[in-house]
Amino acid sequence: MDIRIVSVTREALLPFMEYLSEEEQLLVGQSGYFCLGAVGDLGQEEMAAGVLLFCVKRDRAQILNLTVYQELEEIRDALVAEYNRVGKRSGLRGFDRPGADEGPELLVLNMENVEELIPYLTEDIAENIGRVFFHGLAVVDQGIPVAGMVWETRHEQEDADRENHILFLKIDKAEVTDLLFREYEELLRGDKVVRTRVCLPAKGSREEKQILQQRGFSVALSEGDDILTSLEEIAGIPAFSKIKVPDTVKPLKTMSTRDYNMTVRKLNSQGRYGVCRDLMYLPRNYFDNEISCYLEEMGEIGGMLLLHRLPSGKNKVVLMAAMSKEKTAAIPQMIKGAVSLALKLYDPATPVLIDRHNYQSLALSEKLFPEGFGIPVYVGVREEL
After folding, report:
1. What share of the chain in percent tops pLDDT 70?
2. Burial level of 340, CB count in 10 A (0-12/13-18/19+)?
3. Are strands 195-201 and 163-171 parallel, antiparallel or unpaired?
4. N or C: which end of the chain has fewer CB within 10 A?
5. What are the residue ranges of helices labelled H in 141-230?
């Protein structure tokens, strides 16, 4: 087979798109990201035969995707050979890695090694590594990430069963499934976890769904807790036109450190931490201090609305709480106040994620978004021995 290796640019991406995910396609042409393409005679005409996508950070190269037509070794070897030639010419580290032929390598994710895996895990998932209660594993084969899992351990501070909640699972090479799950199961036994729950976006997770079922999970398609909307859609809600934002609703950046710490401690002691079970451990700058809001009347804090800006650019509502039933009306006021502040800083089309994680947030979202539908997800559960 006659194989040619070419440099794939954004302008020449079309023939190679079938070998790249949508997220990987967006990386091609960006600073620090490079793509090699294989072109070969695969029948009656010459056509795209595979790609090797890699990134370069801090003088080190990292393969992100190596996919070839029908897994033909000849095409794979040609791409890797050109990749190594590029490395030798540039003097970068990460090429011809020692031990690359020793088989898949299992990594327990931490702050040091997660950076190189960000393109595989996505920024929004990778930022959780290092937070209390969050854990992750990845499998790397010949320098290429081929599987990953990130989960949160819940109920660690409560008199209840410990559960793991898997929020990311990606398996691109079926042969490493046992390696990934054996390590996961060993870790959960050490943590005395009695149950594993999983929630994955339905889009792009069909194979992972089948793998979970094979591993003993009951899995079903469901409506997710997250509603995806935008700043302009929220601002256009008819109910908001009747709401006035009083001067007592203020941006979080004006809140004193003492009041912030006292409010967070009080909410945490009441089990009102929104979607952040590690609320007490998160630094204040985890939240967007420019648009997050709080209610202060006569020196007393009456409510708090916290938003986190994800690395992808989405704003996520992670906590909305009134300090008493009498202050419940302040929640819509804080939401409108936060949106008004956000529209001064961000594009009106900026995505906003609202997690309907409890009755209060569900009831409010149904009132504000009567036609809103949660992102479709696969949810599953498995009892652990």
Report:
1. 89
2. middle
3. parallel
4. C
5. 177-190, 206-214
Tens digit of pLDDT for each residue in 59-70? Answer: 677 888 999 988
What is the Cα 224 distance to its own chain's centre? Answer: 15
Cα–Cα distance, 12 to 34 (Å, whole number): 13
Residue ranges of domains in the chain: 3-90, 105-224+379-383, 227-355
Under 8 Å between Cβ of 193 and 162: yes
pTM of the complete model: 0.73
Question: Quick one: average pLDDT of 2-22?
Answer: 89
Which CATH code is given to the segment(s) 105-224+379-383?
A: 3.40.630.30
pLDDT for res 373: 66
Return the residue matching tokens 């700058």: 285
Residues near 112 by beta carbon (within 8 Å), at least 6 away in sequence: none
pLDDT digits (tens, 9 = 90+) for 142-178: 888 999 999 999 875 555 688 999 999 999 999 999 9
C-alpha to C-alpha distance for 64 and 66, rounded to whole angstroms: 7
User: DSSP string covering 155-166, please?
Assistant: -TTSSS--EEEE
Tokens 């595989």 correspond to: 120
Q: Tell me the residue ranges of DSSP E strands in the chain.
A: 3-7, 33-41, 46-57, 60-68, 105-108, 134-141, 144-154, 163-171, 195-201, 218-223, 226-230, 249-251, 293-297, 300-309, 315-322, 351-355, 376-383
Instruction: State the burial class of residue 54 (Cβ atoms within 10 Å of its Cβ: 0-12, 13-18, 19+).
Output: buried
Residues 6+ positions from 241 with CB-CB distance below 8 Å: none
Model pLDDT, residue 99: 42
| Max CA pair span of the chain | 80
- In tens, the pLDDT along 180-239 reads 999 999 999 888 899 999 999 999 899 999 999 999 999 999 988 888 889 998 898 888
CATH topology of domain 227-355: Aminopeptidase (3.40.630)
Shared fold status for 105-224+379-383 and 227-355: yes
Looking at the domain covering 3-90, what would its CATH class be?
alpha beta
Torsion, Cα 361 367 369 372, to 10 degrees, reads 70
In this predicted structure, what is the pLDDT of residue 339? 94
